[in-house]
Amino acid sequence: MMQSVGSFVWMHIRQSHFITGHVFGYVQIWNSDTQQKVVASIKVSKKAVSTVKFIARKRWFVAASRDCFVHVYDYEKELETVMSFKVHDGVFAWCSLDVHPTQPYVLSGCDRQIKLWDWDQDWNCIQTFEEHSDNSNELKFNPEDTNIFASASDDCTVKVWSLDSPKSKYTLSGHSDWVHSVDFFKRDGQHYLISGSVDKTAKIWDLQKKECVHTLQNKSTVYSVFAHPSLPVLITGTRNGAVRVWSSTDFRLKTKLGDISPVCGFACLMGSERVAIAHCDGVSVMEIGDEKEQGGSEASNEYSISAIDY
């Protein structure tokens, strides 16, 4: 099993690859079908890697490290360095990233500053967003409206922004402690957002009403939330290593996977029901299947989970 995963993101590249970032400054690319590394580990920083993402259309990956630098590598040219640049004046801070799905943009969030970088303009910062009163955590573009993104923050709020304005569109308030994670999803044709917090809850926000419409109770800090792109499920991961699968239609708990280390993040192999779980001791890949569709008996848990450790 892979040790000391500090951050994790998977995107579909050649249909089966995922990338991991580590607390000792390494990045690794893995093949989920073979459970083998397909690219040798590369040390991108002396500090921990806080976020790592593929930029598939450029054959790059981008990694943020705790010294406030972002490192860009070409993974098809023997991990050739494309660019390294500092995104914040600080010397040590958590840094989050998200990649725009169509435009040449990368968002970075470091301390209270969120910045938009354009790689077609030599990685110049083209917009800065500064309204959070405490650290920004996860950033997420809205896949249904890619001019919009959300930011989770230690100021206990989620803010929703437009790329063309330094001022937020609105703020979602309701958590009583730091907000670690966010994700967008649709339900009955309407736009929603899920957020996870240190207050041991994940909240469901109606983005039309701009209010919380449901709260998912957990027993520990919710480090990560994930909306499955093709199944009507939401997934939460907590500090105590519990992974819960919830319905995105009625928000009922479907099933639970436990007994792993603190959960760092989730990602989905596109076009499949497999979800990767990054946790502090490694990576597990779980298969989420509808038991009724599989011919199983009608049980209280409509979805079953099986997991493979890496």
UniProtKB/TrEMBL annotation:
The keyword Repeat applies. It comes from the Eukaryota. SUPFAM superfamilies: WD40 repeat-like. Its main location: membrane. InterPro entries: Coatomer_complex_subunit (IPR050844), WD40/YVTN_repeat-like_dom_sf (IPR015943), WD40_PAC1 (IPR020472), WD40_repeat_CS (IPR019775), WD40_repeat_dom_sf (IPR036322), WD40_rpt (IPR001680). Residues 291-310 are annotated as: Disordered. It comes from Triticum turgidum subsp. durum. WD repeats lie at residues 129-171, 172-215, 215-247. It is found in: Cytoplasmic vesicle membrane. PANTHER family: COATOMER, COATOMER WD ASSOCIATED REGION DOMAIN-CONTAINING PROTEIN. Gene3D superfamilies: YVTN repeat-like/Quinoprotein amine dehydrogenase. This is Uncharacterized protein. CDD domains: WD40. GO terms for cellular component: COPI vesicle coat. SMART domains: WD40 (SM00320). GO terms for biological process: endoplasmic reticulum to Golgi vesicle-mediated transport; intra-Golgi vesicle-mediated transport; intracellular protein transport; retrograde vesicle-mediated transport, Golgi to endoplasmic reticulum. Keywords: Cytoplasmic vesicle, Repeat, WD repeat.
